[in-house]
Write the structure tokens for this entry.
Amino acid sequence: MLLTIDTTDARPIYQQVADGIKELIAHGKLEEGAALPPVRQLAADLGVNLNTIATAYRELERDGLVVIKHGSGCEVAPRAATDRSHDELARTLRTALTELVLAGLPTKRILKMVIRELQMVGKEGK
Amino acid sequence: MHMDQYAVIMYVFFWVVRIRGCVRRWPQPLLRGPEWFFNVQVQPGFYEDEGRKLLRRYRTRMFIPFAVDIPLAIAIFLSGRLELLNWLILGLCAMIHINHSYSVDLAERQARPLAVPEAEQPVAAVLLSLTPRRLRDYSNRRVEWALGLSTLVALAWLVRYYFAAPEHHDLRRVFGTPVLMLYAQLGFLFVKRMVISWRSPLPQSQTAEHMAAREETRKYYLRVCDMNRAAAVAVIVFWPFTMDMGHAAFDRVYSVWFAVWLLISVVVGVWIEIKRKQLVDLALCARPVKLPDLLDQAENARWPVCYQPSVPMLLLKGARGYSLNLANRLTHLGAAYLAGWVVLFVVLPKGH
């Protein structure tokens, strides 16, 4: 199970870590209850400040994707119906769609892209 | 045989092993071919000028431990305190490894200005393994149980032996050696933890090769630690048998013990050579790349020590070489452990 961090990516490193783990969870590569490396290990491997990884883990915890057990590491939380509102979830989708529209893609192509990505997540998540 | 003679045999054996080590390290800078100096890709003609000097300096540095060893060994032989040879061997083992690591790092740093510029550019993407590395993930449960139980049984026997007639037994003679061996065990566990926590970021190209090389190296060092732990337990288990032995019987048993020990050492020595060869072959499959320095270590880490509480690494790679992070927990534990050895040597005199 590998996580890619790209120094040329505009996102900050903590965001790349959080997004990478989210992607692995969505694809089912990280299953419920799977142990994640401690903050210290990930920070040392990447050669970054402890706070960088701690921030990423806190974001994942806030999203209900991981459970941080103090002293015994961190693990992927059980999938439960989210308590985030419909509006809150739709906002993320809206942001992504806005970017695609602004990039000049026609609606049909955007729809195709969305369906393909959704199928990929669903397929890998099985 | 007298104890001093055993010490001399061990010292001779140590020389054989270290000469083999020198033979192995001699061609190390050139293992990847003439375009490389260790893991630095150098420009054509490197070995005709500056490279030759760097190579000569690296090879000269290999003899520093000999320059320390020979006068000390002569002094020990002249003084007649041959038991000190064992401590000389231990000290030299540490010195040889530290000297070699420092020497390789220094040689690479000196070669970098003459490297191929494109090869010195750090790669953009780094891959991280999300598999947790814990002590228990790298421990064999059966081996751990066997080591733990053997130690407990031997210690329980010694406690029973001592308390059967405390006025007739010397506490330090009964428990001295086992306590030293237990403490040595603790040290090897500490080293295991350091090896497990050793950082291992991977480049995006040849990820599988890099990963295989890193994991095999890690497992090799962990196995060496476990072998040493097993050796310490063997001494603890052997110790109770020597308690009521007379000098003649002890000498006989010790001769057998020593012969077996030497034989095992030879077998392990051969295994180490084979394993090292395999590790070199694995490492050669992975082309070295420069990984990005996200902490600006070269600027922030002052040689030889630094204090960086928010950085989880024990060693930082500064511009002048490795810098020991004094804020790291492993540094504190290591210092406490070394202090513990000093206390033990003051408190515990020799056994048999």
Observations:
- The two ends of chain B are 14 Å apart (CA to CA).
- The beta strands of chain B are 36-37, 40-41, 125-129, 202-203, 305-306, 315-318, 321-325.
- Chain B has a mean pLDDT of 92.
